[in-house]
Amino acid sequence: MKLLYFAWVKTRIGLAGEEVTPPAGVATVAQLMTWLAARGPGYAAAFAEPERLRAAVNQDFAGPEIAVSAGDEVAFFPPVTGG
Fold first, then answer.
1. Strand residue runs (E) in the chain
2. 11-25, 38-52, 69-83: segment of lowest average pLDDT
3. Phi, psi angle pair for 53, to nearest 5°
């Protein structure tokens, strides 16, 4: 699974992206975020408030209930506002 991090998520984790192999029990965006939060202090800081994050799976916006699998690209970023 390819992960991409943007804005303050990238800053807190210290990476723009990475390849990971989550355990078998990680089947949704929410479960992926929980697993990532347990990987270390930077991840814990980035995923401490999951409601403040948005995700995209294979470049489509995805809610926490959306399924993820091994070949997916998952991006995490803060909400975007404009004006």
1. 2-5, 17-19, 54-57, 60-62, 73-77
2. 69-83
3. -110, 155
pTM beyond 0.90, yes or no: yes
Residue 17 pLDDT: 98
Domains in the chain: boundaries = 2-62
Q: How far apart are CA 23 and CA 8, in angstroms?
A: 26
Q: Hey, what are 79's tokens? A: 């909400």
Burial 28-60 (b: 16+ CB within 10 A, else e): bbbbbbebbeeeeeebeebbeebeebbbbbeee
> How high does pLDDT run on average in the chain?
95
For residue 74, give the nearest of 48, 35, 41, 45 by alpha carbon.
35
